[in-house]
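Page header: ASSEMBLY MODEL / two components / 908 residues total.
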Amino acid sequence: MAADNESMGESQRFAKFVSDTRWEDIPSNIRHEANRSLLNFFACSLGGSRDAAVKALAATLSPFAGPGVATVIGRQEKFDPLNAAFLNAVSANVFDFDDTHTPTIIHPSAPVAPALFAFAETSRISGPQLLLAFVLGVEAECRIGNAVSPGHYKRGWHITSTCGVFGAAIAIGKVMGLSAEHMKWALGNASAQAGGLLETLGTMAKSISVGNAARNGYLAAVCARQGVSGPERPLEGPYGFLNVTGPNANSACIVNGLGEHWELGSNTYKPYPCGVVLNPVIEACIALARDERMSLSDIERVVVTGHPLLRERTDRIEPRSGREAQVSAQHSVAVVLTDGKAGLAEFSDACAAAPSLRPLREKVFVVEDDSYAVESAMVTIYLRGGNKLSLTTEQARGSSNNPLSDADLEKKLSELVDYSNAPCEKARLIDAIWALDTVDDAGKVIALAAGVPR
Amino acid sequence: MAADNESMGESQRFAKFVSDTRWEDIPSNIRHEANRSLLNFFACSLGGSRDAAVKALAATLSPFAGPGVATVIGRQEKFDPLNAAFLNAVSANVFDFDDTHTPTIIHPSAPVAPALFAFAETSRISGPQLLLAFVLGVEAECRIGNAVSPGHYKRGWHITSTCGVFGAAIAIGKVMGLSAEHMKWALGNASAQAGGLLETLGTMAKSISVGNAARNGYLAAVCARQGVSGPERPLEGPYGFLNVTGPNANSACIVNGLGEHWELGSNTYKPYPCGVVLNPVIEACIALARDERMSLSDIERVVVTGHPLLRERTDRIEPRSGREAQVSAQHSVAVVLTDGKAGLAEFSDACAAAPSLRPLREKVFVVEDDSYAVESAMVTIYLRGGNKLSLTTEQARGSSNNPLSDADLEKKLSELVDYSNAPCEKARLIDAIWALDTVDDAGKVIALAAGVPR
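Prediction written out in full:
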C-alpha cells in the first residue's frame, strides 16, 4: 500500500484522500471552523447581495439561465445551480470582506460554499455531508494555493479565482460521491478552467473570475461524473496547473500531512471591510474616537506608524472609489475619527467622494517602521495647542492570534443584513448555520437567506 | 489625434479599431477567407458532432441550460446561446481537424464562429455583420496570440483556449455595436476568464477549455454591455494577460499595422485530421499506395525523412488512442498504405487499436534531416527482394503556400458529414456559406446545419 501510494502522483493521491475521507475523520475544532466560515460567508454574501456588480451580472446571466431551482442569497430571483453558485460567490466576495486563508490570502469560502449550497437545493444532502465537502474543498484550494505561493500571486494571478475552481470541484465531487479516478478527472476538468488576473482588481471584471471559480468547479465535477476524462497529473504534470502558473511551485504541499493538518484551521475573518494591514490602524482610531475628548477641527496632524507593508499598500491620500478607500490609510483614519466606526458604509463610493473627509485625510501621514508586526500599528494625533494623543494596537482583531469570536461573527452578519436591507430573518439563519451538523437537508439553510419577504 | 492615439494603451487602441471598422474596410481576399474559414468550421463541427466528448458535455450541461433557442450543429437538441456556443466550439475542435493560424498554431474559428452563430439565432444580424465580426474576432485572438508567442504555448498554455476567449468577446462586442470603452471592458471581462492547459491535451478536459473560450467570450461582451466594467489595460497592464501569461510578450503586436495587415490571411486548413507535420508524409503515402503496385506483405521497411520536428512530435510506434494516432508517423504510414486514405476513420480509437496495422507500424522509422522544410518529407519503402520505392512531397497541401482550394473545402465538408452521419443537406449548407455576404439573416445558415432530419 505504501509503495503504491508513492508511485501515485500528487493529483491522484489527493483525489484518493478526498474520496476516502469521512465526517468522522474531521477534528471537532475544524468542524466548528467550518460553521464559522459559513456564518461569515452568509454575512458577506447578504451584505454584498445588492451591490451593482451582483445586479449587473444577474441581469446578464438571466436570459441564458436554466430552470430557477436555486436561491440567490439576499435576492428574490432563483437561478439554475451553476448560475446561482456564480452569483453567490460574487456577492460573498464583492467587498473583499470575506474570509482569508492567511498563508495564501485566498478567500476560501466564496468559491466553495455557493457551489455546495446550490447543489444542496437540487439533491438532498445532510448538513454533515455539506460540511465535510466544504472542509475538503477548502483543503484542495488552499493546498494548491500553498503549492504555488508566493510566486503565483506575485506574477499576477488572482489566487482566490485560480485555486478556488479546484475547491469547488472537489467539494461537489465529494457530495456526488465520485470515485478517486473521477475525482482526479474533476481536478483535470477544473484545471482547464482556472483563470483570473490581478489586473482586474478594483473593477467588476474581478467578480467574473470569482463567480466562475464556483460555477466552473461545480461544472468540472458534474463533467467528471458524466465521463469527461481529464489528464493523469492535472496539478503536477509538466504542463499542469502548478508548473504553468507557478513559478517554483512545490507539489509536495498537495499531499504532505494529509488528514493531519487541516487548512481550514488557518482561516480568518475580517472585522472591517478593508485591507487587513489597516485593521490595527482602524482599531486604534475607533478607541481614540470613543475615549478621547477632542474636536476634529483641533487635529493638526495624524501619524500612523506600522510595518512597511502598511505604507506600501495603503499610503493613498485621494481614493477615487470605495475600492480604493478600502486600501487608503488616510481615508480609514479620517472616516473612523469622524464616524467612530468602519463598516461597509464607511468604504462606499459615496463616502470616498465625500468632500467633508478631505481636509482630515490631508493631515494623515504614514510612517514605516520594521519593528512593527503587520498586526500592530501606532496612531498619534497632534492637536492644536501642542497636545498629543497616541494609541498602539498590539494585535488587531481578526488575525490568527486574535480571531473574531462566534458572537463577533453573528454581529457581523446582523450588521451586513442591515446594511444591504435584505429581508432575512437573521436569528433563524444564524441558528440554522450553527446547527448545520444536525440537519438532514442542508438545502433548507440557504433558503433562509433568500431575499424574499416572509 | 495621432498624439491621442499614442497616449492610449494597446487594449484601448485595439478596442477603438474594432468599434470603428466597417465591412467596407475589409479587403476582398480577407472577406473570401472568412467564407473559407466558416466552411471549414462547419465541416469540422459536423464531423465532430457525434463524438463522445460532445455527447458527454451536452448531457452535462442540459439540466443547467436556459431556453433552447440556438442550434447545436449536427445534433437535434437546442440550447441557450452560451451553451450552444460552447458545444459548437467543442465539436469544431474535438478532432483538431479545424483551421490553424500558422504563426501561433491557434485554431481561430472554433472560439469565434460558434459565438457569432449563436448570437445570430437570437438577434437578427446580416451576413456581412457576422463576417465583419468574425474577421475582427480572429484579428483579436491571433494578434494577442502573436504578442505572447512563442513563450506562452511553450510554458504550457493551450493557446486556442486562452486567446480564443478574446476573439469571441470582440466578435460579440462588434455585433452588439459596443462603444470603444465597452469593447475594452469586454477585453477585460474576457481576460478574467482566459484559461486552458496543454496538460489536458488528449483528454476530454481539453474540450472544456475550448468550449469555454466561445461561451465565456460571448459572456464577456454581454457583461460589458450590461455595465460590468473592466480594467484600463487588460492586455498590457502589469498584471494583465500579456505579462502574466507571456513570458516575454510583445504588446506592439496588438496594434502594429492595424487595418493594413489581417491575421485571417494567415489561416490554413488541414487536409488530414492529424498533426500538420505529418501532412507531407501522408501525401507521399497516398500517392505511393495509389500509383505503385506492391503488396503490403512485401514491405520490409519504411523510412520517413523530414524536418527534426517530424521525429520529435510523431515518432510513436504504439499509439494507445485515436488522439495518439493523430501524432504517430508509424500509424499514419501504416494506415495510409493499407487503406489509401487518411480521414477521421483512419484516426479513430478503433483504428488505432486494430491489430492488423501493428506489423506494418513496427517497420516504420523516422529520420530527421534539417535540410527539409516542415512542409516537406520523403517516404522510402524497401521491398523484399531489394526493390525500393521513394517519393518526396515538396510542399504539403494545406500549408500557406499550397492551400486547400475552395473545392477541397467543400469536399471536406461533404466527407465529414458522411463520417458523422449527420442529417444535413450538404449542398444547401455549402451554398449558404458562400452566399453569407448577401443574406439579411445570418442565423438561417446555422439552422441548415442542425442535425434534424428534414
